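User: Show me a protein chain along with its predicted structure.
Assistant: Here is one chain, sequence first, then structure tokens.
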Amino acid sequence: MIIVSSEEIISQKILPYDLYDEKGTKILDAGEILTPGKILLVRNHEVLYRKEEKNDNKKEEAKIIKKYSKNNYIENQEEIKKYGPLNKKSKIDFQTQIELKSNYINAMSVFNQSDVMRAKSMILEIRDKIIKDSQLIRKNVQFFSELKLLGEHKNIHPLNTAIFSVFLANKLEYNEVQIMEIALGALLHDIGKIELHGEVSDISKMTKDEEIAYRKHPLAGHRLIKTELKLSENIARVALQHHEKMDGTGWPYGISSTMISEYAQIIAVCNHFDNMTSSATNLEISNFREALRALLKAGSKTFSPKPLYAFVHMLSYGDTTSFEELKF
């Protein structure tokens, strides 16, 4: 038996091994979610043990997947293949990771089928789930890697941007209504891309014609949010302005400073950070700390100082987790 500290245990969302007390009695099973009640149980024991594992990591991960399958957290591995890999380090549980991705994909499919009001209702439900779940895990999150969803960029980028934005809005002490608007603006900031042909993400790899078309997606997003989804100008302006820069060198209008809405300023930081940690820029970024450094290097010429520095200091700066380490 190997001694494990309570700090090591409660730093994890999911228990990766069976846990025993000093008498050798099992008190928790591998794969259990560490709820507040279970964390209290852990803290009440001075000494805790786990068995020395001879199995490799893949076998241990399979054991956890099996446990979750029994509890309806993962019905089968086909869902993982369909919606993208799970982040094994995330504080967002496996069920929620899958639900958020599947619900967003379904919402966009419904929107593309012109059932706009149903799509709007679905997007609002996703927004509410992100806000609710963010509140539940906020105190337990130490690293940005513990929030990241994995999968196809066009499907997970709006979700990641919304998750990061909700955390940042809380850090900046926005009220409940404002956080709801920020989350919705983040979810919809790239909706104008549905009018583009093909998958695009990195401007540096586009032809001139592709770049001209790409730079129109903020205008398309603003129009869709206002005329199709019938949402407020506060939300629509996020889509319109999330590529503007504080020094006026952004697009589509080249506005600067306070002409850019506060919501767009917040989401611009989160948008760029997620792009960097999704390999959707031409920057060579291999972990989350390098992405934070790149944000600071871009600095206040690109981003509003208040959300920029709040974001950088919101969680631990020492997050050296590589992107490959996250995948189940």
